[in-house]
Amino acid sequence: MHESYPIEKYVEFDNEPWHMGRIVVHKVKETFHVEVDVINKESHKIYRHVASLYSFDDPSDALEMGYRELRLKVGLKQEPI
Question: Whole-prediction pTM value?
């Protein structure tokens, strides 16, 4: 995937004009961790922490699970940007 970490991906919500999802993948030694948050669109401050997931062997798996958590806990219906 990428060589520089952390990786941030943003997800627009169809029904929420002021917030968006953020998925951040961190590399810790040989594994990957992901943080999932709902943030304010303008300030990028965290509005709601959704999940922290740990110990993935592949960064794409971590990103996919982060998106899954956002979709399940926030009700997201749209694909990531």
Answer: 0.85
